[in-house]
Amino acid sequence: MTNTVLLAEDDRAIRQALTRALTLEGYRVTAVPDGVEALAAVHREPPDVIVLDVMMPGVDGLQVCRVLRAEGDRTPILMLTARVETADRIEGLDAGADDYVAKPFEVEEVFARLRALLRRAAPVAPAAPEELAAGGVLEVADLRLDPSARRVWRGGTELELTRTEFDLLELLARNAGIVLDHATIYSRIWGYDFGPGSKNLAVYIGYLRRKVDPEGRVPLIHTVRGVGYTLREE
Fold it and tell me: Is the pTM of this model over 0.90?
């Protein structure tokens, strides 16, 4: 089955080049030049994945993302941005984006991130009867995570997580007490190791901490410098 991509990019050269590349890669692409047309296209024919340029005239990519999430649309969103500061990345995650690629980018990196987003968005097979009987809820201290329902609670309060945040927390919870290195996490969550220069993982860990380990709570997410991250109770 051919996956459909909605591409919103105001730079004509980039839009045309990326459309050609995605088409050759086997995607069916709908390309639009701005946020207004992006929203109209999503409402007209929901795509499998969305690629949004952050800085577009009028309605920008962040606004498009916020509108879709407010409507309850959970389509995976990959942001294209020339703004590479950590605060800018966090703004995109706050808006509901699942991942981002900094400009200028290699098209193979875009392909890799799209494949990872589509894998995570694929329907999950129903649990086997024996799995249901055993229960699939993961618990670490006062953190409870239900993978089948994709819901998580800390101390009885339910947390609102994006798709990528949930996947990252689930990976840490399933390996509670074990230090996972950067390469392993990148491979499991994004399907691709973006190398030591990437700050993608650090941004997501920081954002996840704001929700899981707010001020006043005993921290559960720990950094092991030079190695990676672990989820454990002190």
Answer: no
